[in-house]
Amino acid sequence: MVEPKIQAISYKITKLLPGNEYIFRVTAVNKYGVGEPLESEPVVARNPFTTPSAPSTPEASAITKDSIVLTWERPEDNGGAEIDGYILEKRDKDGIRWTKCNKKRLNDLRFRCTGLTEGHSYEFRVSAENAAGVGKPSAPTQYIKACDATYPPGPPNNPKVTDHSSTTVSLSWSRPIYDGGAQITGYVVEMKEAADDEWVICTPYTGVQATHYTVKQLKENAEYNFRICAVNCEGVGEHVDLPGSVIAAEKLEAPEIELDADLRKMVNVRATATLRLFVTIRGKPEPEVRWSKADGTLNERAQIEVTSSYTMLVIENVDRFDTGKYVLTLENLSGSKSAFINVRVLDSPSAPTNLEVKDVKRNSVSISWEPPLIDGGAKISHYIVEKREQKRMAFTSVCTNYQVKVSEAPLPPGKVVLVDVTRHTVTLSWEKPDHDGGSKITNYIVEMQPKGDDKWTVCSEVKALEATIDGLSTGEEYSFRVTAVNDKGKSDAKPLAAPVVVKDITLAPIINLLFNTYSVKAGDDLKIDVPFKGRPQPEVSWKKDGHVLKQTTRVNVLNSKTSSKILIKDATKDDVGKYEITLTNSIGTSTAEISVIILDKPGPPSNIKVDEVSADFICLSWDAPTYDGGCQINNYVVEKRDTTTTTWQIVSATVARTSIKVSRLNQGTEYQFRIAAENRYGKSHAIDSAPVVAQYPFEPPGPPTNVHVAHATKIGMLVEWGRPASDGGSPVIGYHIECKEQSSILWTKVNRGLLAENQFKMTGIEEGLLYQFRVYAENIAGIGPCSKTSDPVAARDPCEPPHSLRVTNITRTSVSLFWEKPEVYGGAKITGYIVERKEVPNGRWLKCNFTNLQDTFYDVTGLTEDVQYDFRVIAKNSAEQLSVPSESTGPVTVKDDVDPPTIILEDKFRQLVVIKAGEIIRIDAEITGRPLPVVSWSKDGKEIEAKARCEITSTNFTTTLIFRVFAENAAGLSAPSSPCPLTKAEDPQFLPSPPAKPKIIDSTKTTVTLSWNKPLFDGGAPVTGYRVEYRKTLDDEWIIGVHNTKNTEFTVVGLTPGAEYVFVVKSINKIGVSEPSPESDKQVAKEREEEPVFDISNEMRKTLIVKDGSSFTMTVPFRGKPIPSVSWTKPDVDLRVRAVIDTTDTFTSITLEKATRNDSGKYTVTLSSVAGTASLTLSVRVLDSPGPPSNIEVKDVTKTSAIVTWDTPENEGGGPVKNYLVDFREASKKGWTRLTDTCHRLTYKVTDLQEGGVYYFRVTGENEYGVGVPAETKEGTKISGTEF
């Protein structure tokens, strides 16, 4: 029993099993008992719809190394029910199984499939799903390779002219900011004369590798333009134009002299040897060269050689007189330049001077002399004194080793430096004098002078180069000076550069890391030395990986006043990690992090997974070791064994990835695998897998689902079913179907061959009989079990639904409906109708009439005001068959709806109507209006009543008048004629012309919006409105969307999603309705899609110039349907962090505060939606100082010199780098010393370095906007000819 007490005469029965056939019976009950039951015909509980057809083949876009975006179109047939979602599947080219890409049901027509393996090829297919189940999959795509997309590169940066002559121009540039995702293979240089339009390629067509090129064979004094493009594997990228034009003419350069470091010092040469002075020169035009000697004439033996790039002075067989200062002078039209070289010839000294005889006595004389003007390149060691008598010609020696010490007061000490200051002391240091005056320095005198006092007071006498002066007053200001003393006297005093205020100096801790990363082989000792400074003395603490470092017998920490050391003995992999040093004093805290890498064999792999098993192969994957031994894993070693043996066999010892396909296995055999990782230091321990049997991973499929008769007629049936819940691990290759009559027990196979589709058309059946079906699925493993038996279905034509359902009247609580009978009854008479309603948008369909409704109209009452409802009608025939529901009315808002009455007559009745007496006149008129108008006919102002000779027939939409006409002559009055229509004295009026072809301006899943222009001719009467009609392109019946609207735009509602429609519009004036307009373009009821586009001017495409430190905003308008998603990108920068991005439905903007050189470059904004993708690149140039020079290196290291080289900064800021500043420092010191601040080249030779010393160098670029960021050498350079 379903329900024992029902008061109404209808009831809805729920919780039925789909596909089962039911018989119902109803029994009446009164106070005297239960009556006889009335049984129904068998009814099958099933949906009136089928699974959808296949969507279109997916299309791929936005392909990367691990993801692909797929888009597709809706199925042409939704099976009669809304599409609930989509299932996207993929299959690896190397695999056999289809796997789902989406975990959740897809409601969009677009999906990004992630987790792909780089380099693998995949095919994709998509299936639609509705209430009936999953439909057929689409045709698969072509195989698509997962790899990063590549594009042509961006334009090169910073093009400039480095040199030019009358026939050549030399250019240089830097790499593009964007390489298109592929390596730059070359550069193409093009040129054209300034007056020409045609560009000519100067380089080979494949380009040149270097970032510089010299264009040759140019016309002298001709003006040229140049541009440069980068090339990668995708082709030639965007070009960059060289600013301005270049004239091929000789370049004017002032003379330049480049003295080698050896020539800047004293040049020593032995007597009788050859002096060669080689000097590099430069200048355009080629300068005139002159050599001279500052303190005399140039030796006649001097030979001078001159070329355009160097000059050389050669003097053979030199002697002491060739000692001196040699001056080189260059001169051309642009100016002159001079340089000098000091030469010392190592020879015997010249003769002493000013010999005088004094104190002559009878047996002695005193003689004196001055040292020789030329000492021969060495200190005078002694003198030889000789004498001769006047009468004799020969000299005899008086003394052969007479040593005379010639000395003088020393030069002042070198630079005086303040070393330390406390509240009562000052510590100074200084350098030795450049010359000790020929006598040893005996001591140094330190003097001080308090501020405001003119007197200098000796405060210390020391022999060392450092002194501490104590007993000073706190807060007082003192000046200091230092004097050197030898046995000849005191030097001039050397003052300290600035006065000193005596007070305690405080300094926050500063850590000077020598290296950020330390590497050591396992088993070796490791020493980490961290210099620091701070006042007061900071406290030192160490952490490892966030925890306090524990000291053991292996790990020790040694602290001093200036450094902290970690000593690790016999390093192991346990010592790997991040070490953090923290210095703390009363001024502040400083921390630094050091990475320690222990070079050892790696740890074992982990998490072996069996990805796929078949009869002759097994696919394995695993996770890389958590510890890689401090270097890259070179390969993995994979071994296997039959579990019945203990012998391991190597499958492969050169596996580069963390996966492998092990093939050539024996079916049914159980295997175990083990895997080890290997790097340059050895092989790890192996990890074993669980035992795996090599066998097919599938079995026969399960039973098909949801077997049902989707459509039945008296001559055939369409049987459909769903795929099995399990395919047994192998794709289903086909189906078998069997049939029987309901009263029979014998099943008969009805298909000859294997069925590939999920449906079968059954013919040859007998009308009126009930049939049942069952289906089997088959895969490679065989045929699976049969499905459940379908519900019995009678071989009988179906009942068609009612049509032309429309709303005739609306009030605040009711809606009046009218429809027409079905055209096909299913072989049985229509016995009634069922009217249903539902609230829009989320209501359920509810029955409106609870008695049998035989009329084709019905008033639905009890509705709620201002609520939208949808209505439909179902027909029922005498065979108790129900039709499918009619097309719904679309959303109807319940409120008082008033349309004024209109009358539509044929044109002939608007003219004079002539008819013979006795004939019958019939006037038909169509009427409209809400609520339904009351019809009355009148003649000469009097209402016509229905009489014997006058008949009036009216319905809701038409009215008809029929009467007979009378005539009169001399014999009397005939029967009266019909009255003519009322005629008004006015200009003739006609029907208006139709509007022009309506345009589709918008659409959704259930609506289409039209617009049209007014008709060219209004028929002589004002156009009072328009009627909109529509039909499906596959139907011939027009449906009225609106009877009368005064606007020239209207939205047609209640359309079927995915269906295709055409629309017409008719004009209305008081005469009537015009002919229809031309049909609109065909339009599918779906969400309208417009490709996203940018609405920007050419001005916005120009490069935005921004000053350093200022803020800027770029606003980009756009449009598209649906509203596209917006993303901003810049190479190597996360703009979500660096910038503020604001996006609305119509524009997007990006704002950057405090712009720097790093904000220069290309900003790309991308719009994405299902309708497409659009990208726009905007250029920004920040006027800033340059970034750090690149590739700084130290080359050609000798015992006293080294050459520092570098490349132009990758980011030159707002303008080209015109100058470089070069500094150096000793490794033991923290302060930098400036070598030069006017270097215009990319190399600089550093001289006068101390042999064995370790030096660091740094280079800073300078452009018109300031001095940029320095670049330092990463490691110290030892001045011994080898790198440190």
UniProtKB/TrEMBL annotation:
Q: Which Pfam families does the entry link to?
A: fn3, I-set
Would the keyword Repeat be found if you checked this record's keyword annotation?
A: yes
Domain of life the protein comes from: Eukaryota
Among Gene3D superfamilies, the record links this protein to: Immunoglobulins
UniProt keyword Glycoprotein, yes or no: no
Instruction: List the transmembrane segments.
Output: none
The GO terms this record gives for MF are: structural constituent of muscle
Give the record's GO biological process terms.
cardiac muscle tissue development; sarcomere organization
The residue ranges of the Ig-like domain are: 255-344, 509-595, 1092-1179
Q: Which UniProt keywords apply?
A: Immunoglobulin domain, Repeat
Q: Name one GO cellular component term.
A: M band
The residues covered by the Fibronectin type-III domain are 1-48, 54-149, 155-251, 412-509, 604-697, 703-798, 801-897, 994-1087, 1188-1282
Q: What is this protein called?
A: Titin
**Provenance organism:** Lates calcarifer
